[in-house]
Design a protein that fits this description.
The protein is α/β, with parallel strands linked by helices and 239 residues long. It is built from seven helices and nine strands; from the N terminus they run E-H-E-H-H-E-E-E-E-E-H-E-H-H-H-E. Strands 1-2-3-4-5 form a five-stranded mixed beta sheet. One of its GO terms (biological process) is protein catabolic process.
Length: 239
Amino acid sequence: MRIGCLQFAPKLGDVNNNINRADAVLSRADPEDLDLLVLPELAFTGYNFKSLREISPFLEYSGTGISSLWAKTAALKYDCTVVAGYPEREDLTDRWPADPAYYNSVIGVSPDGESIINYRKSHLYYTDETWALEGPDGFYAGRLPGLGRTAIGICMDMNPYKFQTPWEDFEFAQHTLKCGARLVIVSMAWLTQAEAREFTREPQEPDMETLMYWISRLEPIIQIKSNQEVFVVFANRTE
């Protein structure tokens, strides 16, 4: 299985330039024989919106917005499944006059350009709560063509719910075990505690403190005795 993580630092609200940057990264990498391409949380809009009013111009309907169209184009071009984060405005046409609903979501597109996933973030971070609702259906689990049984989460999904539930509940990790996932995808816009100068000195070095934290949140998966491998994909934005 060949997996690509398209990691870059999107500028808040600068969708067109962010898409151009993503295209440039892919063009330089010139990936071949990809099975899966994963982008960060809110990949093309950036993450740190302070209110619904601020993010409102960038909300998209699932399957028809600019993020969905980009994902479909990339999936067809590289003949792979594409997973990308975007800010969702739910289409309530069939339920009018229902109240509007907005979610921090990821879309998944198959190699033939069909939308096959629309997952809505379950555990909201403080910033999400300024504009988004909790996804009503829990963490994602499903079988993806050519990839097998898959679990998907978005950033804060890795953490205890609202930072209030017991650490040892490991909600997302337990979900992946219960659904029998062999592939775990987490799209992220995770903060770092490291100072900027650390990345200036050693830009190619990973943030090991953050990486070890993510691993610690998957402890139940690591500890279980099984002959089957579980592949975990973290796609975070860069600084």
